[in-house]
Amino acid sequence: MPGKKLIVPLVVFAALLAAVPSFAMTSAEETYKAEVEPICKINTQANEKILKGVHQLVKAGKLGPASKKVFAAARALKRTRSELLAVPQPPEDSARLTKWLGYVKDEVVLFETLGRKLKAGEKTQAQKMVLRLKSTAERANNTVLDFEFRYCRFQPSKFI
User: Fold this and answer.
1) Rounded to whole angstroms, what are the CA distances from 112 to 86, 121, 134, 142?
2) Range(s) of the domain holding residue 33
């Protein structure tokens, strides 16, 4: 009798465990990640060079040179986005990845707006753009959290 009492809970536990969806990446997701991570890595490395010292330039009131760097970062991100759009997406994640790439497009626009604000000497407005940029990057990263990107996680706070 004691064996029967143990078997029933084990069967129920096994049935519940089988019903829980797997959170592991599929091979299509892994393939997509393997294709986009090198693209994002190049962009991240470029941003490290391009945006180096922007924060100090803004602090020192040198908004013109800072704006040039921000515009260069916007061009690099725009180029990266076009390369990411060319990578075939897994059909089951197409909606999520399209949303993510939409956020990346928003980030490009925010970088360009930030560059214009800096060029015009509007430091306070530029700070607002930085906050919007950080917020948009966070939403983009949350959209593709399951992919566990390393380089495709956009982190403007590292640079600005």
Assistant:
1) 23, 14, 14, 23
2) 27-158
